[in-house]
Target: Choline ABC transporter substrate-binding protein
Amino acid sequence: MNCLKTLAGAALLSSLLMPTAWAQEPASCQQVRFAEIGWADIAATTGVAMALTEGLGYQPKKVMASVPIAFTGVQKGQIDAFLGYWSPSMDAIVEPFQKNDGIKILPTPNLDGAKYTLAVPTYAAEAGLKSFQDIAHFKDQLNGRIYGIEPGNDGNLLIEQMIKGDQYGLGDFRLVESSEAGMLVQIQRAVRQNKPVVFLGWAPHPMNTQFDITYLDGGDEVFGPDHGAAKVFTAVPTDYEARCPNMGTLLNNLQFSVEIESQLMDEVLQKQNPVVVAKNWIKANPAILEQWLDGVTTFDGQDGLAAVQKHLGL
Model:
């Protein structure tokens, strides 16, 4: 009997000392709900996240929402991750949600080096429309319009505030809201006719190569310095990393560059499935997986990198 106790004790000690596999996450973590707001950049990065979680044995789901609804969903625990918090342009929108620990913003941005402000075709800048202060002087040629994207987004709100406050003499202008795709159509139409047009511009985005555009100077007070220099962060429910630590590690690892996102977005804007686009891009750039999957396992605790490589046929 003493011998059996000794053996059992030795086995227990050995099991405690041996490296163990990561524990499987709760079943409630298997479905991962990502907010998608209809922007090509967020569609692209969310497509990558969904492709990876799929390969890891999770069940990713896309939830279409406006920007405010996306943050509301995160706050209420109805959305697990939103990869589209553009700072500083969304800071005023996010502030109420961060009060009383309503949501958590992961500390490392998923994108650095972005920009977000008003832009014009370069021929319009060469004609004198170079700054926010110049817009009012071109009111007739612009038909008193500034083109934004979908209602409720942060850029549109900033434009509306400028108009309501008669900032830069824009009190008589009108914001035209539609969608990212609708705005691009208006730019294309103006370029074909060689007419000036003022619109929300940002990078990364293929608009920077599809059109010869110039970002307007002088908008620091509204969009921030250096032509709206921005960082993009990921928002999650406050307790998400504690409940689903493996997914928390993956979301913290997901960091992109302007070049990577521009490549992904080019395909997304051609109406291709963002998850398929992401899979194809990863197959062509497999080395990135080591960074994104560092310390990440499958849902059931197995080697995450090996599982995703197998899932993608690498």
Summary: Residues 1-22 have pLDDT under 50 and may be disordered. Residues 140 and 149 are 22 Å apart (CA to CA). The domain at 29-112+231-312 is CATH 3.40.190.10 (D-Maltodextrin-Binding Protein; domain 2). Strands lie at 31-36, 59-64, 82-87, 104-105, 111-121, 145-147, 174-176, 199-203, 213-215, 229-236.
